[in-house]
Amino acid sequence: MTSRAAVICSLVLASATVQDREDAALVSASAGRTVRVRFGSSGTSRILDLPMELYVARVLAAEGEPRAEVAAQHALAIVVRTFATVNARRHRRDGFDLCDTTHCQVLRPFTPATREAALATAGQLLTYEGRPAEVFYSASCGGRSEAVSQVWTGATDLPYLRSADDDVHDADAPWVLELPIGRVEEALRRAGFDGPRLKDVSVERRSPSRRVTRLHLSGMRPAEISGEDFRAALGARELRSTQFSVETTRGILRFTGHGYGHGVGMCVVGAGRRAARGEMLSQILEQYYPGLKVQPVAALSFAPLMAPAPEHEPARVPGSVATAASRVRDELAAALGIGSPPALQVQVHETLEAFRLATGRPWWTAVVVEGASIDLAPMPILAQQDGAEAAIRRGVAEALVREALADRPAWVRIGAARYYGSAQRPAPTKKNVRCPSDAELMMALSASALRDAELRAESCFARALAKTGDWRAVR
Ligand SMILES: [Zn+2]
Ligand SMILES: [Zn+2]
Prior knowledge:
The protein has 475 residues and is α+β, with helices and mostly antiparallel strands.
C-alpha cells in the first residue's frame, strides 16, 4: 500500500469510527443484533462488533450504486442483511463473522441514502421455506443471470437462483480485455499450472446462460480450467465476468464480454435501472429472487444454515469420530516423530451445502484441512469414497505434516497425507509417475481427475521418501 493510500485508508477508518458512535438510530434499529467484522488483513487488522443495521448501511455504501433510486437501495439493503445473517459463521475459526473484502462484503462509511435504506428495511430478511435464504448478488448480469449450481460446483440448484433474462441491459456496450499470451501464462503458473508453454486458450464449454464453464489451455498442465478459476487467476477485476468469447491474434488474447461479477442472484446495475423505470421493491426482488418472501427477523425461529461448531453442539461430531481422530493423531504423530501433536478440531458436516459453505470446495474434496481444523464431507459421501476412517486418517495426517511442508509443492503435502494416512503404506512404484501440478490438485474439475492427481501425488511422495528417508526433506 502506498503511503497516500494508507493515509486515505486511516482517514476512512477514523470517520467510520465516529459514525459508529454517533448513529443512535442505526444502533437501536439493530435491536441488539451485531456482526463481528474483521477490518484489514491479518497483521494490521482489527475486529469490531457492528450493530447489524450500521453494518448494512456501510456495506450498501460500498456495494450499491450511490445514486440508485430508493427501491433499489431498499432491495439491496435486504439482500445485504440476509447475506450477513446466513454467512455469519463463515470465519468462525478466526474469531469473527465476516471479513471486509469481496470474499464476504465490502464496507465504506455510510451515506444519508444508505442509512435511510437500512433504517427503512431494518430487520427484514429474504426467506426460503421459513429460513433466511442463501442469497448472492453481483454488479451486473449483462443480460442474463446465472444459476448458482453453474458457479459453485455441488451447490443445490435453488429454485430462486436459476438463470433468468434481465431485460435492462440491451444498451450495454461489451467490455474488451487484451492480454499478451505470456501474461496469461504467468498468471496460470502463479495459480499452480505447469507445462511447457501456453500456446492457446479456447472455450470448451458454456453454461445455458452462455457463461464459460470450461476452457482448454493448450500447452499447460492440466490442460483444462473452469471459467471461474480462470477469471480468478487473471484477476476478477481485469476479466470482469465469464460471459466472454476469446480469440488469439499474433500472441495477443482478446476477450470480449458482458457483465461484471458471477451473475448469480441480484444484479445491482439492473436493480437500479428497474427502480429508475418505476418498479417497486417487491417487483425488483421478484425478478432476482423469484418466490422468496420478505419477513422480519423477529418473526423467524431458524437454525443457522451452517452446521454449528462442535463446541456448541457436540452431538454433531459423533463420539466415534472424535475418538478415532485422537487415536489416529497419536499413532501418526509417533510414526512421524512429532513430539507433542497439536489438538485437532474435526467437523463432520451434515449436508454438502454446509461443507461447501465452510470450505468453499466441491464435494469430491472429501477432506479439507486448515490449520488444526479438519472439515469432513457428510458421512454418506465419505462412505461412497474410501470410508470415514480413511478420511479421518488422511485429514489428521495432513494436519500433522502441513506446517513443516508449507513451502513445498502441493503434491508433497497431499502425497504425505495420503501416504501416512493409508492403513498399509504403499511401496514406491517402479513406474515413472509424473508429479501433479498444484492446479491438478487444487482445481480439479471432476472427482476422477482429483483422484488421479492424488494417487500420483502419493506415488511421487513414496518415491521421494525412499530416496531421502526423511519426510521433512521431501521437496
Ligand atoms: Zn470473508
Ligand atoms: Zn442484470
